[in-house]
Design goal:
By secondary structure, this protein is an alpha/beta fold. It contains 7 helices and 6 strands. Bound molecules: 3-methylbut-3-enyl trihydrogen diphosphate (2 copies) and magnesium ion.
Length: about 230
């Protein structure tokens, strides 16, 4: 079984570069190539929703020049890939607060979202300036403002007010680079996600590594509280 929604924490670009005597920026460049290939592979496989952790709210704490380079890579990626996204029928969405980004970045993101809004083959969510806790705070504020009575609030109400509204929760979350934590990623949506950790650094996460992760996922029994015999 394939996940309907795959979410990825693309970690280890810096360590990948360091191990090769390269700059962190080379690591991010290589990581962008890996992300591009993953998008294509997931589309070919027929995965409906792919979410990539691209820039966390906490990543603002990084050196200014590294942040600037990450934005440059993102804008370049979106500009270069727009046609290919359209050809592959991939719709771009952003999870996160875009208003904090430089104007140029916001502009190209908005342009790509607009130009791909009718694509239905796959949804590519980029988590940008994303924080799972902030997403929940934002959802609660919007619910309060919408006038919904507190008595009517269900977990669906909350789901509908998240950035991922209308999309299924991730079935599988992959994190590369050996770290085993969620780093404030999709906290509400991850309630029943399967987690897969690999020591491979993100730039080395090729389609063979993806196949391994998907094979591992398909061998798992998801019980959702039931006993194994009930499945
Ligand atoms: C992931 O790689 C990319 C982003 C967080 C933007 P890192 O830059 O975190 O790489 P490490 O963890 O330092 O190796
Ligand atoms: C998580 O990676 C964020 C992204 C992949 C964009 P980090 O490298 O920033 O996470 P921590 O700080 O090590 O948890
Ligand atoms: Mg990291």
């Amino acid at each position: 079984m394939l996940p309907e929604h795959l979410a990825v924490i693309m970690d280890g670009n810096g360590r990948w570069a360091k191990a090769r005597g390269l700059s962190r920026s080379e690591g991010h460049r290589a990581g962008t190539e890996t992300a591009k290939n993953l998008v294509t592979r997931c589309r070919e496989l027929g995965i409906g929703h792919l979410t990539l952790y691209t820039f966390s709210k906490e990543n603002w704490a990084r050196p200014k020049d590294e942040i600037a380079q990450l934005f440059d890579l993102l804008t370049l990626f979106l500009k270069k890939e727009l046609r290919s996204l359209q050809e592959q029928d991939i719709r771009l969405k952003v999870l996160g607060e875009l208003s904090d980004f430089p104007f140029g970045v916001r502009q190209v993101v908005a342009h790509t979202i607009n130009k791909t809004k009718n694509c239905r083959g796959m949804t590519l969510n980029l988590a940008l300036n994303y924080s799972g806790r902030d997403e929940l705070v934002r959802a609660f504020k919007n619910i309060a403002e919408s006038g919904i009575s507190f008595k009517d609030i269900t977990d669906e109400t909350i789901s509908e007010h998240l950035y991922t509204s209308g999309q299924p929760d991730p079935d599988l979350i992959i994190r590369t680079s050996g770290e085993q934590r969620l780093s404030n990623y999709l906290l509400f949506q991850a309630a029943y996600s399967e987690l897969y950790f690999t020591d491979v650094y993100w730039p080395d996460f090729d389609s063979a590594e993806l196949d391994k992760a998907l094979e591992n996922f398909s061998s798992r029994q998801r019980r959702f509280g039931k006993t194994g015999d009930q499945i």
